[in-house]
Amino acid sequence: MSTDAAVENAVRSNRTAPKHAAKIRGDHDLNPEMGPPSTLREAAVLVPLVDRPEELTVIFTQRTATLSAHAGQISFPGGRMEPEDGTPEETALRETAEEIGLERGRIEIVGRLDTYVTRTGFRVTPVVGVVTPPFILTPDPTEVAEVFEVPLSFILDPSNPQRHSREFLGKPRWFYAFPYPQRYIWGATAGMLVNLRDVLGAAARETGEGAD
Questions:
Q1: Mind listing the domains of the chain with CATH numbers?
Q2: Residues facing 151 on adjacent strands
Q3: How far is CA 157 from CA 41, 141, 160, in A?
């Protein structure tokens, strides 16, 4: 069985998912001299895996060019935790409904990835959810320029992720990137995808071992 097929089987048959975060990842992983910010604000995102008949896909959003932070970048739906949310899962579901109109009833929360710390001062909890079609999305035009899906097989491709760099404060800053046709997934989102690859690969191996 191929790696992609094993991952599909692990997610679909067992809803295999990451357990609660045990590790802190972040922009500093590839840039140890940067270090995480001293003050962090809590946030959460949804990593939506769509259970389509042909293959699993991942939902991404393209942020509008007018936003004050991360304008035009590709991201997962999500945002800051509010006091009334209670848990990162509640934040991820609320923000997803607000940003792209995806109903909670279509999302099965299956776990979390590792906590991700950004250089902009957020401690992000990535919440993984399996989305069951059909669904209709209604993106918030003030935040989301576009919603699109990428095959999970692309994320799992051995040629991904790539390591790219840009100059930041006079020094090269390294980051993960997943160049997709006419898209450029990089930064924190790409870092979370690296974690997702690790987790799903481990789940697929466990499922395969259990079947022997």
A1: 3-206 (3.90.79.10)
A2: 57
A3: 33, 32, 6
